[in-house]
Write a structure and sequence with these properties.
The protein is of the alpha+beta class. 33% of the residues lie in helices and 24% in strands. It is built from 16 helices and 21 strands. The mean pLDDT is 95.
């Protein structure tokens, strides 16, 4: 099953580079150009110059040259011994302070068909091309893939909790009030115990599908071009592993906003929904989340349909059995997802937004922010929005175990991992 191993992580020499808080950044795909420039202005050694290169005519080549320079100058240095890194994030979500903790290790990448590492969402080719070009130029992972594992007895979590009782080796709090902590574990016996834990486990990708598929492509590219052979570091990628039943796991919903749809008519949409949904009208958006929360606790499939001016409609699916007729080729796990219900019964059947349209985002835009889904309809930028409940972690597991994938933007694991505390140099 999953093969994990320690690695000599590449980390900042803060005596030369500056404070770790000024050197890290959020994931590359949620950073605006203005934010990118502000990180560099604060500290020229910020990892954004490697993870999201925009300098020079060939941005990827430039990233490789910057990486070489920083290693030469001693700004980036490698661990003396192979290590496993315990990483914890403390954060605010749903009006309380929570934390999630796991381990950062190298994991041997395997084709999805082998059933060892399983995806749960579809990906876009553009992002994979960008990440592949960056890997070719740098032979590094600057950020982690995020994966979950099943451990009913929580043996691994108990081990890492015991190992992280003392002060972390690195710690800082970012602008979003997320506190990042890193412990460096080099004890060989402890590492052997942790690696043995995963001998009979599967991994479920939570976040980083593009990077994982890129890792497979890069491994094959390196072998085909004589850069690496089987068993070399290019067979392994840096992955953050978290217990699937960790009490701090938080998944936010991703809401759908509809724009530029010809002949959009709110009443027509509602009439089309009557066959499958119980519909209740409300005149204030203040209770959307609480009403959806009630339905979530009851296990119902429910959505908030918002068309502006504070008016919204609660749509509650009458009979989940209809989904076996609508999506007969999919497993019950996929059929019963909230996003499957919304996409097939409402967006496709009632509004005429087909799968290709959704994939290309012709009439559909996604947001994790409830306020944005409301505000942009009120401004007239969108015709309506659909407010969703979050996908359950168990649903992610069941869809992946069935060998299927969810529609894009089905999950948003929060918080995102920080980039830059530890990196995976495949030259080591």
């Amino acid at each position: 099953m999953a093969e994990i191993k320690p690695f000599r992580g590449m980390r900042y020499n803060t005596e030369l580079a500056g404070e770790i808080a000024q050197l890290c950044c959020p994931p590359y795909d949620i950073i605006s150009e203005e934010e990118r420039l502000s990180y560099i202005a604060e500290n020229e050694y910020n990892v954004i110059r490697l993870e999201l290169p925009k300098e020079g005519e060939d941005v990827y080549k430039q990233a490789g040259e910057i990486l070489d320079l920083w290693r030469e100058k001693g700004v980036l240095v490698h661990e003396d011994k192979p290590a496993v890194y315990i990483y914890e994030e403390e954060f605010n979500a749903y009006n309380k302070r929570s934390s999630v903790k796991g381990i950062i290790v190298r994991v041997k990448v395997e084709e999805f068909s082998k059933g060892v590492i399983l995806p749960h969402e579809f990906t876009l080719s553009k992002a994979k091309t960008d990440r592949f070009n960056l890997m070719k130029a740098t032979n590094c992972n600057f950020s982690q893939i995020y994966a979950l594992y099943m451990d009913e007895e929580h043996t691994t979590l108990k081990t890492i909790d015991a190992l992280s009782k003392g002060d972390p080796d690195q710690k800082f709090t970012d602008n979003d009030h997320i506190t990042h902590k890193l412990w460096i574990i080099t004890d060989e016996k402890v590492i052997q115990k942790l690696t043995a834990d995963f001998a009979d486990r599967k991994l479920y990708i939570a976040d980083g599908h593009h990077r994982y598929e890129t890792a497979l492509n890069y491994r094959d590219y390196c072998r085909a071009n004589g850069i690496s052979k089987e068993g070399d570091p290019q067979d392994y990628q840096m992955i953050y592993l978290v217990d699937m039943q960790h009490p701090g796991l938080v998944v936010f919903p991703t809401h759908r906003m509809v724009r530029d749809l010809e002949n959009f008519d709110r009443d027509e949409v509602l009439r089309g929904c009557e066959e499958y949904f119980d519909i209740k009208k409300f005149t204030s958006v203040g209770n959307i989340n609480s009403e959806l929360g009630k339905q979530y606790k009851q296990g119902n499939k429910a959505f908030g349909f918002y068309c502006g001016k504070g008016e919204w409609y609660l749509l509650v699916l009458k009979d989940i059995g209809v989904m076996s007729k609508v999506l007969p080729d999919l497993s019950p796990a996929s059929q019963q997802l909230d996003v499957s219900v919304l996409h097939s019964l409402i967006l496709e059947k009632t509004m005429g937004i087909d799968k290709e349209n959704m994939a290309n985002q012709i009439n559909l835009t996604y947001t994790k922010f409830f306020e944005e889904a409301i505000m942009k309809v009120d401004r007239g930028e969108f015709q309506c929005s659909f407010i969703l409940n979050p996908t359950r972690v168990t649903e992610i597991r069941d869809v992946a175990a069935a060998g299927e994938k969810m529609p894009q933007k089905s999950t948003y694991f929060y918080p995102k991992m920080i980039t830059g505390m530890v990196m995976n140099d495949l030259n080591k």
